[in-house]
């Protein structure tokens, strides 16, 4: 086949040129993202019910939603959590569920349930979770002094949001910190009483003044006119001019008995940038958009905003494209230094500048054609797929070096140029195909891991398969063709002699080889002792998800665990920020967040603080100061203070606790009272537990209506409830609607203490006699459950267990539950991790079997594949040793480095065994040699032939990666463990390929020969 293609050089070159041009066009069309657009199989239903308790939200809303959604197709888990004024239902589906259809199905069921929910409840929000929901950047909008924050909110909602949405690649713009204008009506109780009026008279007058006649028209001859009431109100002055009529018939303007004015609606949450209040706009990209083009467009828009709206300050923060830029930069660095060092090493070992020139053409060609595979498989350019390309570049260089060296060796043996190109490529074709298949056999099965891990490995596996497949095509077609074309034009004749550097290296190899093979058994025993020692080093390594990268930013998530207002929450956060020194940037989301896509716990008592520092050391110092301040001044607060999560952390973070023990009271189907629960928890089987959300308590005021007294004084219950809602709730009289803008008219809430209001507010009986409201309402302070948690089986309470091996006590937990008539079950991330580990072990066993079968087919032997398998632990041990010496951990990046290194090691071992097998066949033709002499001569000659490509591959790979060790920044921090793994593995792996593989070949071949004689 290679001969056939080389005989048609113009057709082949034009085909490759067409592929490169087409790949360049496709490359410009590929989306560039931070992460693959993975559909997380979760949907969150959010409920906002002002002035409602957790019990009310659970009984009146969440229970109905759970019962209505329990029949959803593919539903795996259902969790709900009811808090004060807010509630959430989190739906988890089987992985692989069509989330577009599930999202539509959930919305349809919510629409059917709306009629069964409380009338004053706004429609629950349905949020679909996706990796593209992670915002690519945040725009801070800060009003300058003397600028109305309500006007800035309108600017952000009506102008800035729409202009950003028009940018190419933007899918959603979300805002937090908006302020809304309302018209507040403050009654003058004394004036009302003097005129014999009540607040109800005010309310009826305002509602009548804002009435509408929708859809009513009158006919006037041939014309038809739609009616519009002229009594509608627009401003506070219009409200004050409305007539109010008392029960006795007196009519006065509303301004005589109440004051109407514009006010800012009471905020349930704030956004702070530094110490200033403002808004934040989060920008989300489309899955098909290019992040590296979107961010510059966004920055350009901010420049326009600064010029158009000088009364507002704009700032871009938390730019997530930094991670992607780091990955792209690392790939460019690898290609650049890989090409430079490959050129230098090839020149040292081959002494001809034309061969490095061929490498310089083949490497970028292979990479560019790989993007064509991305396009057809629907893969975006992201951190995961780029790491797959980085994985394959080492193998790509390896294949090119092997083919070029083999062609050069054929020329040196006296073959004509054309025949050298054909035979040189043909000779290593089988071995290179096997090495690529073995690499894919180890890596591709990881795609079948369940959950997000498998989805992420899909992008990486496609990238690896793409670049390795393309590298084979380039190695067997383009490289021989380029070699033939370039060397045919240049000087003719055979290349004679070796560079001095290689001659000295060959002499050293010969001496060490002779020393090792004179002590074959001892050397072999020494290598086998190194295998468990090297693998044992792995037990000393720390394990973590991502490597320790320099994170100059930190976050503080805090729950004050006190019934404070949003304004008090804001003031506390401001005092905390003022106590922090030397920060570069600070932003805080206080209380309830207005983001449409926020799926966490919305609570007035919670806040999230983000701090960016000039350096990590400064961050660590200030975090400790902040921690001491929290412990000293706010002992009731619970908080999480640490590194700010990046996109990877957000993707892999889980809402599940590590190990949770749940129980349900199946008889009452409600939470067990706190007094009883405390006694039961005293004899819980372990002391290493913390209360789950369903056991957390908060201080609250409980009102009790005195029914007997109300009946005695003829006070309707509805009157008392309505009066309480006016006093302490948000009582909306009516809404003024103008072209999509809604301005509520609300009764002004009295800011006095509720006890004083109960003592001073009057309520009217059916005979118009008035009494003090406090006479009919009793109250007491009581600790109540902060949240009510439930799953598809009903309400549950739980504790989170922190034992290292919690499963051993599962029987004790069940026995404890039975003793208290409770149904107990255990859940948590512990069980998912265990299942993932089982899957991983099973998949790796399948990978090893595939590797063995491929090698057995290549070598036509059941024994020789074991040589390759035994080389892998030595390389892994070398990688572990370097990781330990450098203080690195075993993480995702070092694991990728292991796969890169093992791919190169397998490649070298396969080629060496293949060469020895061929030489054995050639030497066996000499009848003067014994079987032992044939074997030893083939092992020795095979080592000399493969010495050059093995050294070139290892040295070029190691030298190309060394600059990353001395680099700084996010990209270098991410890639450094990968570099240590590759360098450590290849250093040991080179010695393995040079000496351990020949020793193992000698050992197995000798024993096979003995068995064949028997």
TrEMBL record:
<dbReference type="InterPro" id="IPR001036">
    <property type="entry name" value="Acrflvin-R"/>
</dbReference>
<protein>
    <submittedName>
        <fullName>Efflux RND transporter permease subunit</fullName>
    </submittedName>
</protein>
<feature type="transmembrane region" description="Helical">
    <location>
        <begin position="331"/>
        <end position="350"/>
    </location>
</feature>
<feature type="transmembrane region" description="Helical">
    <location>
        <begin position="978"/>
        <end position="1004"/>
    </location>
</feature>
<keyword id="KW-0812">Transmembrane</keyword>
<feature type="transmembrane region" description="Helical">
    <location>
        <begin position="866"/>
        <end position="886"/>
    </location>
</feature>
<feature type="transmembrane region" description="Helical">
    <location>
        <begin position="383"/>
        <end position="407"/>
    </location>
</feature>
<dbReference type="InterPro" id="IPR027463">
    <property type="entry name" value="AcrB_DN_DC_subdom"/>
</dbReference>
<keyword id="KW-0472">Membrane</keyword>
<feature type="transmembrane region" description="Helical">
    <location>
        <begin position="522"/>
        <end position="541"/>
    </location>
</feature>
<feature type="transmembrane region" description="Helical">
    <location>
        <begin position="892"/>
        <end position="911"/>
    </location>
</feature>
<feature type="transmembrane region" description="Helical">
    <location>
        <begin position="950"/>
        <end position="972"/>
    </location>
</feature>
<feature type="transmembrane region" description="Helical">
    <location>
        <begin position="12"/>
        <end position="30"/>
    </location>
</feature>
<dbReference type="Pfam" id="PF00873">
    <property type="entry name" value="ACR_tran"/>
</dbReference>
<feature type="transmembrane region" description="Helical">
    <location>
        <begin position="840"/>
        <end position="859"/>
    </location>
</feature>
<feature type="transmembrane region" description="Helical">
    <location>
        <begin position="461"/>
        <end position="486"/>
    </location>
</feature>
<keyword id="KW-1133">Transmembrane helix</keyword>
<feature type="transmembrane region" description="Helical">
    <location>
        <begin position="428"/>
        <end position="449"/>
    </location>
</feature>
<feature type="transmembrane region" description="Helical">
    <location>
        <begin position="357"/>
        <end position="377"/>
    </location>
</feature>
């Amino acid at each position: 086949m290679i001969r056939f293609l080389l005989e048609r050089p113009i057709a082949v070159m034009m085909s490759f040129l067409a592929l490169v041009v087409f790949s360049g066009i496709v490359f410009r069309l590929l989306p560039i993202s931070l992460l693959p657009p993975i559909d997380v199989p979760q949907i969150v239903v959010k409920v906002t019910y002002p002035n409602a308790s957790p019990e009310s939200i659970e009984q009146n809303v969440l229970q109905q939603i759970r019962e209505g959604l329990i029949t959803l197709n593919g539903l795996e888990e259902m969790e709900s959590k009811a808090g004060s004024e807010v509630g959430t239902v989190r739906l988890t589906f089987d992985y692989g569920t069509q989330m577009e259809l599930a999202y539509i199905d959930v919305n349809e069921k919510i629409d059917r349930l709306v009629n069964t929910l409380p009338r004053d409840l706004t429609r629950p929000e349905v949020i679909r979770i996706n990796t593209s929901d992670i915002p690519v950047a945040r725009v801070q909008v800060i009003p300058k002094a003397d600028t109305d924050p309500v006007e800035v909110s309108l600017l952000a909602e009506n102008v800035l949001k729409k202009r950003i949405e028009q940018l190419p690649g933007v899918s959603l713009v979300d805002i937090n910190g908006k302020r809304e204008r309302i018209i507040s009506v403050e009654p003058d109780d004394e004036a009302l009483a003097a005129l014999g009026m009540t607040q109800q008279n005010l309310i009826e007058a305002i509602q009548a003044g804002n009435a509408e006649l929708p859809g009513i028209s009158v006919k006037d001859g041939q014309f038809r006119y739609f009616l519009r009431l002229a009594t509608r109100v627009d401003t506070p002055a219009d409200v004050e001019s409305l007539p109010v009529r008392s029960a006795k018939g007196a009519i006065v303007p509303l301004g005589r008995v109440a004051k109407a004015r514009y006010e800012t609606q009471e905020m349930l949450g704030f956004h702070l940038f530094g110490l200033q209040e403002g808004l934040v706009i989060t920008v989300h990209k489309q899955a098909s958009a290019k992040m590296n083009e979107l961010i510059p467009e966004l920055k350009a828009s901010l420049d326009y905003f600064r010029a158009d709206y000088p009364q507002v300050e704009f700032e871009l923060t938390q730019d997530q494209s930094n991670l992607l830029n780091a990955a792209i930069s690392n790939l460019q660095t690898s290609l650049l230094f890989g090409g430079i060092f490959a050129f230098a090493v090839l020149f040292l070992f081959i002494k001809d500048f034309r061969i490095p020139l061929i490498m310089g053409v083949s490497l970028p060609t292979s990479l560019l054609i790989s993007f064509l595979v991305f396009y057809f498989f629907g893969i975006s350019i992201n951190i995961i797929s780029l790491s797959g390309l980085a994985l394959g570049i080492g193998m790509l260089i390896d294949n090119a070096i092997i083919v070029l060296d083999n062609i050069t060796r054929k020329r040196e043996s006296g073959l004509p140029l054309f025949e050298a190109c054909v035979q040189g490529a043909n000779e290593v074709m089988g071995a290179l195909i096997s090495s690529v298949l073995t690499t894919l056999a180890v890596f591709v099965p990881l795609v079948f891991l369940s959950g997000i891990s498998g989805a992420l490995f899909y992008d990486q596996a496609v990238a690896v398969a793409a670049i390795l497949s393309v590298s084979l095509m380039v190695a067997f077609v383009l490289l021989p063709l380029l070699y033939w074309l370039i060397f045919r034009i240049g000087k003719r004749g055979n290349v004679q002699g070796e560079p001095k550097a290689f001659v000295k290296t060959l002499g050293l190899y010969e001496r060490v080889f002779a020393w090792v093979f004179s002590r074959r058994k001892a050397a072999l025993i020494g290598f086998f002792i190194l295998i468990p020692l090297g693998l044992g080093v792995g037990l000393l390594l720390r394990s973590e998800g991502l490597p320790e990268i320099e994170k100059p930013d930190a976050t503080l998530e805090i729950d004050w665990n006190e019934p404070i207002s949003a304004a008090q929450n804001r003031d506390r956060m401001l005092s905390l920020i003022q106590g922090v020194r030397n920060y570069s940037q600070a932003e805080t989301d206080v209380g309830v967040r207005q983001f449409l896509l926020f799926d966490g716990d919305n609570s007035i008592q919670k806040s999230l603080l983000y701090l960016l520092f000039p350096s990590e050391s400064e961050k660590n110092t200030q975090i400790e100061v902040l921690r001491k301040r929290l412990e000293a001044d706010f002992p009731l607060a619970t908080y999480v203070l640490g590194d700010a999560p990046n996109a990877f952390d957000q993707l892999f973070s889980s809402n599940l606790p590590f190990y949770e023990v749940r129980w349900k009271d199946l008889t009452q189907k409600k939470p067990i009272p706190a007094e009883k629960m405390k006694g039961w928890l005293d004899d819980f089987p372990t002391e290493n537990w913390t209360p789950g959300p369903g056991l957390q308590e908060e201080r609250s005021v409980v009102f009790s209506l005195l029914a007997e007294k109300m009946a005695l004084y003829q006070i309707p219950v509805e009157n008392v409830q309505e009066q309480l809602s006016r006093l302490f709730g948000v009582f909306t009289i009516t809404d003024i609607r103008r072209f999509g803008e809604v301005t509520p008219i609300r009764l002004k809430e009295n800011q006095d203490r509720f006890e004083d209001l109960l003592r001073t507010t009057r309520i009217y009986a059916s005979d118009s006699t008035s009494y003090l409201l406090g006479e009919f309402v009793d109250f007491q302070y009581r600790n109540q459950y902060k949240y009510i948690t439930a799953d598809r089986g009903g309400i549950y309470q739980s504790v989170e267990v922190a034992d290292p091996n919690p499963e051993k006590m599962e029987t004790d937990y069940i026995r404890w539950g039975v003793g208290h008539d409770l149904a107990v079950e255990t859940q948590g991330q512990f069980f998912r991790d265990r299942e993932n580990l089982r899957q991983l072990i099973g998949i790796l066993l399948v990978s090893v079997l595939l590797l063995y079968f491929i090698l057995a087919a290549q070598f036509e032997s059941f024994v020789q594949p074991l040589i390759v398998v035994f080389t892998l632990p030595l390389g892994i041990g070398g990688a572990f040793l370097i990781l330990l010496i450098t203080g690195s951990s075993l993480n995702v990046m070092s694991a990728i480095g292991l796969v890169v290194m093992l791919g190169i090691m397998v490649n070298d071992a396969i080629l060496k065994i293949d060469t020895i097998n061929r030489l054995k066949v050639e030497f066996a033709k000499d009848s003067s040699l014994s079987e032992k002499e044939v074997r030893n001569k083939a092992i020795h000659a095979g080592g000399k032939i493969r010495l050059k490509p093995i050294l070139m591959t290892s040295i070029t790979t190691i030298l190309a990666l060394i600059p990353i060790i001395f680099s700084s920044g996010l990209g270098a921090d991410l890639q450094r463990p990968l570099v240590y793994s590759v360098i450590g593995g290849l250093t040991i792996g080179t010695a393995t390929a040079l000496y351990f593989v020949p020793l193992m070949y000698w050992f197995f071949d000798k024993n096979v020969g003995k068995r064949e004689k028997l």
